[in-house]
Amino acid sequence: MSPPPLRVRGLCVGPREHRVLDGIDLTVEAGHFLGIVGPNGAGKSTLLHAIVGLVEPDAGRVELFGEPLTRFNRRRLLRRAGFLNQKQETPSTLPLSARDVVMMGLPEWNAPLWRRVRAGETVTRALEMTETANLAGRDFRTLSGGQKQRVRLARALASDPELLLLDEPSAALDTHARDMLYALLRRLCDERGVAVVMVEHDIAAISGHVDSVACLNVRIHHHAMHGERIPESIWRAMYGEHMHVVAHDSHCIGCHNGDET
Questions:
Q1: How far apart are CA 196 and CA 158, in angstroms?
Q2: Dist. CA 209–CA 199, nearest whole Å
Q3: Which of 93, 183, 243, 257 is the most buried (most CB within 10 A)?
Q4: What number of other Cβ atoms are within 10 A of residue 146's Cβ?
Q5: What span, in angstroms and rounded, lies between the C-alpha atoms of 146 and 46?
Q6: In the chain, what are the domain boundaries?
Q7: CA 82 → CA 5, 33, 48, 102, 153, distances in Å?
Q8: pTM
Q9: What is the pLDDT of residues 21-74, one digit of tens each?
Q10: In the 8-state DSSP scheme, what is residue 107?
């Protein structure tokens, strides 16, 4: 039996007296779609950064495909993963096309003697998956925020990853593009066995697509399977007492600040 694509064991980031992440335990099997929700500053992005080796933990460890992540094997292991960072890159002054940006997601794109023509079919497929094939020749700098986000997603998909890590991928997307994104991720899980870990703010938007939701604020307060009702006490522990909870349907609980009208 193959090891899970991702296992996090006792992960801690930050000094003991002021943890950013405290004792995180997670296992994500192949084909599982995990949503991570929590307030601003909860450590969601930090968790993804630790998983890909951009943040070094103060305790605990990350295992990718059964191997503890180290600075020596990081590059090799991440060839099997795709990562979409929340923070968009500083705009380049170079006239890169959308196709060029997607090519950068291929593990071999900057290798000596690499022939870009061989990657054409792979890049086209990634662009088609994110409905951006019509933008392939466009200067990336001229694209709208939503178009750039979809091209960046295509770049994360270009390497045909077994593990996909996404930090608020629906940012800047309109309703159609957001629904397309969630449906695409669901298909990748079901048809290709890709493990997906996605950070999002809106649990109502993702509840019909994910297999489970981890409620994170420094530590994981609750890990709910699809359809499970998350107790109101969990939301209060994560967001504070000045809020109230609204049940949207049998599969989801959303919340909003009690001071809002």
A1: 15
A2: 13
A3: 243
A4: 16
A5: 24
A6: 1-80+161-180+187-261, 92-160
A7: 12, 14, 11, 12, 9
A8: 0.87
A9: 999 999 999 999 999 999 999 999 999 999 999 999 999 999 999 999 999 999
A10: T
